[in-house]
């Protein structure tokens, strides 16, 4: 598209040149050709002039300002409406940047415009433009792509929205000044707008959010007959559903928290977005008609629904007026007509409270809001909330009026919640928070401060959980709590403190032996086994006892000391009780110190391994060794494994320690191999935590590869606990280890679960006979019987058998006769240093004994 005088001059000059050339041409055909070209050029110029005139007429006919912008924001053209709207001459705008019309535009304001236009969309924005005289006016600008004179440009149409803004402002002012309440909801009945009148009617402060205060969950809405309305019956919802105005509906709105009732007449008007067939929101106009309904039968029915009654006391005549609902709440056998009649329904203390509040009002004081208790004529107790004040404008307070609300259900619910907050849901006993509160109250009372705490922990509870599942574990806790209740009776308070731990709080003032007697009674309650279907379990209890004030003055201190005593009882001999002593506290301190040092022992290289030979019981020749851990701490000195291993199990440090033992044992086997002593098989104990934690098979595979050892160089010993883990992961781990060639053994067989049904499923190689049983042979008949049974099990399942704790020749001979091929113990050697073990190997080469 071409515009401007320069174009016309160029065309006319070219036409004149063609005419001169035709006149000068001597050849007729060439002259005719030049004249035809001149005529065609003039015709084209006429066509362009006509098109340009049509464009300008159409451009100037648009009633809104239209501007053409270059890519950089330069104004290329402006229509006549634009020059009038901006009160500037056209040549004062065209050729300048768009900033001349809006000096407030940011530097990169065209970036989002072009991003939108390049997606083929129209860009719309509201801005404030400036006229030539400096005045401003709001416009809504619609921008689109255009090709102008072969250039990529923007056509922008700016519509003056001053009238719309003014109308919106006046509409907003009208909404805020009108005495009708107005609330606008969206389709989900969420509040979008609430005018000032509505805020006043509903008692919403400026610092509160109307959408939260008017949420449907806060209100109980009834119709004119006092019937609760469903959501689809509300006028606003009906207007949204039908698309029609719902006029003059009477509603009762009862605020659940404030206990206040409002009566409103409501008209709901649906609102449609342009082009929509369904409403997008609804406006509800309402008036407060509570005052008009106060004395009507309708209001009385609504108050009955909300359990609210009205009352008025005429002081001069001592006449009491009660609405029907108020009479029903008080439940009197006859009409109550005097203040004395009303007071007679209340407890004595609450009579005095109400009488005093009324006297205060008559003396010129403020109104009151009281919660009172009483009893109906039929004996039913009740709770009421009574609100009262003098009639406005009554200087002598001759009439006092108010409301009376039945809050019995709320009080019962509060009591239920209070009980639930203090009760363990599984056992029905007091919970941790409740017992701490009760114990704190007793310790704070000098007359009751001599109180004892029994800390009860169930022995072998985890076994029931592991074998039978959590449902059986819960049933065990319920049965155990019933037994403790039976043992304690009314002599103490019982609480479930957590997990399988219980507390008993009892008085130790009058009878100092009462706590000990109660401990014996609780232990006796666990004498009989617990039954779960066909299964029977002997579950006992370990009890710790602490007595205030000597063992603690604060609840947590007293309970902690009872816990220390319980811990000692459990580790000394289960199914017993232990009183707290300072010596136990010192042991606890020592235990914490051990656990603290244990956490850093691997990093500080404080562990070492010794190796106890496993020998052929026939000739004493070494066939393998068991790696035994020793700990030398710079603060604690040398500690025996039976002292620190249990701590490591409890804290979880056993996993890291066990990994170190595996690696160190394999390193030593490789060292002996490099010394020419052959491949010595070393047995390593594996904690259940190791087995249940990281992938044990992958760890073993990596260590064997690191030291270039065959799997047969390693024997892993597990406790019987793994037998009950019949999970696919357990079986897969055992299969993976066996595939590596590692020997698998169940350690101390017979001490724990002895789950023979699981034993036959696991791909293990052998059993180890516990020293608990070998120490009693051949003289103790029970130990002999156990050894014979374990030997028979091993033979029947084709498993190898190693006897631990062999310390006498008589034991060796008995085991040989029993068919046990391998043993270890002090009869042959204690745990040896790696060098001493190597010397013994050098003196007597390894003997290979078949290990099934």
From TrEMBL:
Q: Which residues form a coiled coil?
A: none
Q: Which organism is it from?
A: Pseudoxanthomonas japonensis
Family annotation (Gene3D superfamilies) = 3.30.70.270, EAL domain, PAS domain
EAL domain boundaries: 591-845
Where does the PAS domain lie? Answer: 51-104, 167-243
InterPro entries recorded: Biofilm_reg_signaling, EAL_dom, EAL_sf, GGDEF_dom, Nucleotide_cyclase, PAC, PAS, PAS-assoc_C
Q: Where is the GGDEF domain?
A: 449-582
Give the PAC domain ranges: 123-173, 368-419
| Protein's recorded name | PAS domain S-box protein
- Pfam families reported in the protein's UniProt record: EAL, GGDEF, PAS_8, PAS_9
């Amino acid at each position: 598209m071409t515009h401007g005088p320069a174009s016309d001059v160029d065309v006319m000059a070219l036409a004149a040149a063609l005419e001169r050339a035709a006149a000068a041409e001597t050849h007729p055909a060439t002259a005719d050709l030049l004249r035809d070209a001149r005529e065609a050029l003039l015709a084209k110029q006429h066509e362009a002039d006509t098109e340009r005139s049509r464009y300008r007429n159409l451009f100037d006919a648009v009633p809104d300002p239209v501007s053409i912008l270059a890519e950089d924001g330069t104004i290329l053209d402006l229509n006549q409406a634009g020059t009038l709207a901006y009160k500037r001459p056209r040549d004062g705008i065209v050729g300048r940047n768009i900033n001349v019309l809006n000096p407030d535009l940011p530097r990169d304001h065209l970036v989002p415009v072009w991003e939108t236009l390049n997606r083929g969309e129209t860009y719309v924005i509201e801005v404030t433009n400036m006229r030539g005289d400096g005045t401003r006016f709001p416009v809504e600008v619609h921008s689109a792509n255009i090709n102008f004179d072969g250039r990529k440009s923007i056509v922008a149409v700016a519509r003056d929205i001053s009238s719309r803004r003014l109308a919106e402002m006046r509409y907003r002012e009208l909404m805020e000044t009108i005495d009708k309440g107005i609330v606008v909801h969206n389709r989900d009945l969420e509040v979008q707008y609430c005018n000032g009148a509505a805020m006043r009617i509903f008692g919403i402060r400026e610092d509160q959010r109307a959408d939260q205060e008017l949420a449907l969950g806060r209100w109980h809405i009834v119709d004119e007959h006092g019937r609760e309305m469903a959501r689809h019956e509300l006028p606003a919802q009906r207007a949204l559903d039908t698309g029609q105005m719902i006029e003059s509906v009477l509603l009762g709105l009862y605020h659940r928290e404030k206990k206040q009732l409002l009566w409103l007449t409501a008209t709901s008007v649906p609102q449609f977005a342009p082009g929509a067939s369904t409403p997008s929101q609804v406006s509800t106009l309402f008036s407060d008609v509570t005052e008009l309904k106060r004395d009507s039968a309708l209001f009385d029915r609504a108050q009955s629904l909300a359990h609210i009654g009205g009352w008025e006391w005429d002081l001069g005549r001592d006449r009491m007026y009660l609405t029907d609902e108020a009479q029903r709440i008080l439940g009197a056998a006859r009409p109550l007509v005097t203040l004395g009649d009303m007071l007679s329904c209340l407890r004595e203390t609450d009579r005095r409270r109400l009488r005093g509040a009324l006297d205060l009002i008559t003396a010129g004081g403020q109104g009151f809001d009281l919660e009172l208790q009483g009893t109906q004529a039929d004996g039913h107790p009740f709770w009421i909330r009574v609100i009262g004040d003098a009639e406005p404008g009554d200087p002598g307070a001759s009439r006092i009026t108010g409301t009376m609300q039945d809050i019995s259900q709320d009080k019962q619910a509060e009591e239920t919640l209070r009980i639930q907050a203090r009760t363990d849901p599984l056992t029905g006993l007091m919970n941790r928070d409740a017992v701490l509160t009760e114990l704190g109250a007793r310790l704070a009372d000098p007359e009751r401060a001599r109180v004892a705490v029994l800390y009860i922990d169930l022995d072998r509870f985890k076994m029931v959980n592991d074998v039978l599942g959590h449902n059986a574990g819960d049933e065990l806790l319920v049965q155990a709590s019933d037994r403790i209740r039976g043992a304690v009776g009314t002599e103490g308070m019982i609480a479930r403190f957590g997990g399988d731990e219980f507390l008993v709080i009892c008085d130790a003032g009058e009878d100092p032996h009462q706590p000990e007697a109660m401990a014996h009674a609780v232990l006796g309650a666990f004498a009989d086994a617990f039954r779960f279907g066909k299964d029977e379990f002997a579950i006992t209890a370990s009890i710790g006892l602490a007595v205030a004030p000597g063992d603690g003055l604060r609840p947590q201190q007293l309970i902690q000391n009872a816990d220390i005593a319980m811990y000692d009882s459990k580790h000394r001999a289960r199914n017993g009780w232990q009183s707290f002593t300072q010596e136990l506290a010192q042991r606890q301190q020592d235990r914490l110190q051990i656990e603290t040092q244990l956490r850093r022992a691997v990093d500080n290289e404080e562990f070492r391994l010794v190796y106890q030979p496993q020998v052929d019981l026939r000739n004493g020749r070494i066939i393998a060794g068991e790696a035994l851990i020793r700990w030398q701490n710079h603060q604690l000195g040398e500690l025996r494994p039976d002292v620190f291993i249990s701590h490591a199990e409890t804290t979880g440090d056993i996993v890291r320690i066990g990994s170190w033992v595996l690696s160190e044992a394999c390193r030593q086997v490789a060292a002996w191999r490099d010394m020419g002593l052959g491949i010595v098989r070393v047995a390593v104990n594996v904690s259940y935590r190791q087995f249940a934690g990281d992938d044990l098979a992958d760890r073993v595979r990596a260590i064997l590869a690191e030291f270039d050892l065959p799997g047969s160089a390693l024997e892993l010993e597990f406790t019987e606990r793994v037998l009950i883990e019949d999970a696919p992961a357990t079986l897969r781990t055992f299969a993976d280890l066996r595939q590596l060639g590692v020997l698998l053994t169940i350690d101390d067989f017979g001490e724990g679960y002895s789950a023979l049904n699981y034993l036959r499923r696991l791909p293990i190689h052998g059993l180890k006979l516990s020293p608990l049983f070998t120490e009693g042979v051949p003289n103790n008949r029970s130990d002999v019987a156990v050894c014979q049974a374990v030997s028979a099990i091993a033979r029947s399942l084709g498993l190898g058998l190693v006897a631990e704790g062999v310390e006498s020749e008589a034991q060796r001979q008995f085991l040989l006769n029993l068919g046990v091929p391998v043993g270890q113990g002090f009869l042959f050697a204690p745990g040896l240093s790696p060098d001493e073990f190597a010397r013994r190997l050098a003196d007597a080469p390894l003997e290979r004994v078949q290990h099934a």
